[in-house]
Amino acid sequence: MTGGRLAGAVASVRLWFAPERLREEGDTPDYRFSLANERTFLAWLRTAMALVGGGFAVDQFLPDTGRPLRLALALTLLAGGAVCALRAINHWIRCERAMRRGEDLPVSRFPVLLGLAVGVVALLMVIVVAVGWGG
Amino acid sequence: MTEPVRDPGLQPERTRLAWRRTTLACAVAASLAGRQTLHAGLGPLPVLALSLVVLSGLAFLAVSHRRIRHLHTPRPPLLTPRAAVAAVGCVLGAAACGAAMLR
Lengths: 135, 103
What we know:
The structure holds two protein chains of two kinds.
Chain A: H1 2-16, H2 19-24, H3 31-61, H4 67-101, H5 110-131
Helix pairs in contact in A: 1-4, 3-4, 4-5
Chain B: H1 11-40, H2 44-70, H3 81-101
């Protein structure tokens, strides 16, 4: 199971760098579907950029917080942004391939995980600001 | 000659605006990085990291500009994986610089 997932991930990464291989598979979908997929990709990139921006902001706007907690929050947000960006391109290419092959679009539990993580970080920040915890 | 196809859903236009919004998000992150550099007291490392953040923002602007030019055709071609990788690389670069700027 894990080996299969790893092989799938490697195949996806190889596809990132070989656009002609993507075009070899299946039929070209309606260009409007491809553009919608592209906009979804961009929306995820914006989310990633917002998380990176949040990482910058935590370091500046929580100056009274203890250094370890501040660093942990900032690094979590920055790492979340990086993961979100990588996942964005992976999901984009998988959707594009599924559309060419006429398969169902890939499902993912990433949005749930991201939502939970952002919720936890937000809750922590509320506590930090309200209680002055970690100061 | 080929007749321009009317797209009732304005798909190319919406995609163009999505690229613009994403470029704007990069600009916001770059301004936060600039504020951070001032905050940190203009040391060599923060200034270097800020330059790299600004550079990745400009690279994103270049990628999105190229893509937007291609979207002007009636039947826009598929976004190339290379452009998508470049766009993701800009975000990753900004994240790495953010980590380097932390005090």
